[in-house]
Amino acid sequence: MKVGVLAVGQVAPEVLNALAQGLERIFPDTNAFVIKQVLPLPKNAYDKTRKQYSSSLLLNVVKAFTSKRQDVHRVLGVVDVDIFVAGLNYVFGEAYTPGSAGLISLWRLRQEFYGAKSDQALFGLRTLKEAVHELGHTLGLQHCRRSVCVMYFSNCIFDTDKKQSFFCDQCYLQASIAISNVG
């Protein structure tokens, strides 16, 4: 499977590169790479009242970009802004289930957001977990009931910290079957 990691707005290149490398470790037979093009943050996705961006509108931009690319199976958009979906105060990401596009936000994954000292290793691990989670959705996986599985729904950062960066046995089997059918 070929996965393109795409910046939407300003995202540090080292974060994108580390994410691509991490995805190759988690997903078998996957080539993950950073797409050189950077998509601008669409102004219409910003909700002035909430002071957040609509995850669904950003995801649609990633999906439109993905539909023009024949060299990838999945595109993971990465934003460094706060995002939300209707009915929730915030989300860490969103994806089409199944589909070719996913999106994660780095905004609430940093320790600094919670008033704590910076921890780059923890930030990198959280970023990878959320990326694997959203790509799992693109493969058709739903949320898992096992709190240590990467497909467990993160209602807060503590849920993200508790889960592992890989699939439980059942979700791994589903992901492997889906990956074998990609292409």
Task: Based on the model shown, name its key terms.
5 helices; alpha/beta; Collagenase (Catalytic Domain); globular; 5-stranded mixed β-sheet; 8 strands; 20% strand; 3-stranded mixed β-sheet; 183 residues; 35% helix
Q: How would you characterize the overall build of this protein?
A:
The chain has 183 residues and is of the alpha/beta class. The chain has one domain (2-180): Collagenase (Catalytic Domain). It has helices spanning 13-26, 55-67, 120-138, 157-162, 169-180; strands at 2-8, 31-39, 46-47, 52-54, 74-79, 83-84, 93-95, 101-105. A five-stranded mixed beta sheet has the order 2-1-5-8-7, sandwiched between helices. Strands 3-4-6 form a three-stranded mixed beta sheet. Strand 3 (46-47) and strand 4 (52-54) form a beta hairpin. The mean pLDDT is 96.
Produce a short descriptive summary.
Helices cover 35% and strands 20% of the residues. With 183 residues, it is α/β, with parallel strands linked by helices. It has a single domain (2-180), classed as Collagenase (Catalytic Domain) (3-Layer(aba) Sandwich).
